[in-house]
Design goal:
Elements (H helix, E strand, L loop, with lengths): L4 H9 L2 H17 L4 E3 L2 E4 L4 H15 L8 E4 L16 H16 L23 E3 L2 H11 L8 H10 L1 E3 L13 E5 L7 H13 L4 E4 L5 H14 L6 E2 L15 E5 L1 H11 L7 E9 L1 H9 L9 E6 L1 H6 L4 H7 L1 E4 L14 E4 L2 H11 L2 E4 L2 H8 L1
Parallel strand pairs: 2-3, 2-4, 6-7, 6-9, 7-8, 10-11, 10-13, 11-12, 13-14
Antiparallel strand pairs: 1-5
This protein binds FE3-S4 cluster.
Length: 386
């Protein structure tokens, strides 16, 4: 991979974090056959929750943060707790201290106070064609597909390396030809609610790391958020197209492609496979983090919690701050939690069964949090457990 003189200088004589960052980017570029490094307009880093990165993660960040600051706008994924309500979540003082140390290290490097998997709803929204370096698979799928920005599916270290250098290796989805569809998915049933998550889980399984092109589908931005998160969970899908909906759909189908039909039967089968009929300890909505549109919808239901089940509504601090007028109605339903989510917080310390409408959460809660899952639409969950 070709480096400019300035990039060579950063690799040889930069600060510790900058040298490490350049080493990571050069290794990636060499592995994937990048010709050069290109400037990014924003980065989004993962690896923030103390539950997931532990003490080894703190050590890594401490080394990287020595005298180094981000060179591009950078937001970061959720932490393991609501930074204001962590005591209500049953988080211990020791755990909270470690989590705050991680937050402090990111802030020291100039990462924005964001702590969300939906940076595009929290002020870090790129434009079509922008080159970015984002970790967080659901945000990658949204940025590439719904916005038409360009990012590979970065890991925590590579996204941080891009943040600290302002650069990313040019390969993969930064190249036009790699953004074409690899499979056509004909959707033969109208979708609503959790169907978008079920569809994502079904297609993720067979499309792997390909690029599905959906036909027969109309979807709002929130529905595409849910679809993309599920696609990126059961599969490694970084980009999808929806005919007549997403920005790059027009030139996405270049060749004769394999076609798959998905209808009601496949969606209902997947929904059944994702959930159990157990009684949940917690109903957790907001994976990915709830948008303002979704919070308005919830508040508009004017429901009041009557039963014992704990309800969590997870959103970003940014959207929360814009939802001040809705908070009374939302708190009637459940706890509005910011900066965290049901998967990256230590939910296993207090729960055995979680109910959710998210395909991504339904996929990861059993794997990472030892939880049984109840999978259903938001409306049904509210009627059943509120
Ligand atoms: Fe976001 Fe947590 Fe889901 S990080 S996408 S709410 S698993």
């Amino acid at each position: 991979m070709h480096l400019t003189a300035e990039q060579e200088e950063l690799l040889e004589n930069g600060r510790f974090g900058e040298r490490k960052a350049m080493e990571i980017l050069c290794a990636l570029g060499d592995i994937f056959g990048a010709d050069r490094l290109v400037p990014i307009s924003s980065a989004h880093v993962s690896g923030v929750s103390y539950k997931t990165i532990g003490d080894a993660g703190i050590e890594f960040l401490t080394d990287m943060a020595q005298g180094t600051r981000v060179r591009a706008r950078t937001t970061a994924n959720p932490t393991a707790m609501d930074r204001q309500r962590w005591k209500e979540m049953g988080i211990s003082d020791d755990f909270a201290q470690k989590q705050l140390e991680i937050v402090g290290l990111y802030e020291k490097m100039g990462v924005e106070e964001s702590w969300t998997c939906t940076p595009y709803l929290a002020g870090n929204r790129p434009s079509r064609g922008d080159i970015i370096a984002w970790a967080e698979s659901s945000a990658v799928a949204f940025a590439n597909s719904v916005i038409g920005a360009r990012t590979n599916r970065e890991g925590g270290p590579s996204a941080l390396a891009s943040a600290l250098t302002g650069l990313t290796p040019r390969y993969g989805l930064h190249i036009d030809g790699n953004r074409k569809a690899t499979v056509i998915v004909e959707v033969s049933s109208p979708l609503k609610g959790k169907d978008f998550a079920s569809l994502g889980c079904v297609v993720g399984e067979f499309a792997g790391d390909g690029v599905p092109y959906f036909r027969g589908l109309s979807a709002s931005e929130s529905e595409m958020k849910s679809l993309g998160a599920a696609l990126a969970s059961t599969g490694s899908i970084p980009l999808f197209h929806i005919e007549d909906v997403t920005p790059e759909h027009k030139n996405a189908v270049a060749d004769e492609l394999e076609r798959i039909d998905i209808g009601r039967e496949e969606l209902d089968e997947k929904a059944e496979e994702l959930g159990t009929e157990e009684e949940p300890d917690i109903v957790a909505i907001g994976c990915p983090h709830l948008s303002m549109e979704e919070l308005k919808d919830l508040a508009g239901r004017r429901m009041k919690k009557r039963k014992g089940t704990e309800i969590w509504l997870c959103t970003s601090r940014h959207v929360y701050s814009q939802a001040r007028g809705l908070l009374d109605q939302l708190e009637d339903i459940g706890k509005v939690l910011c900066d965290t989510c049901m998967v990256v917080c230590p939910i296993e310390d207090r729960s055995r069964v979680v109910a959710t409408d998210s395909g991504k959460a339904a996929f990861y809660l059993p794997k990472f949090c030892s939880q049984e899952v109840v999978f259903d639409d938001v409306g049904s969950l509210m009627r059943r457990f509120l």
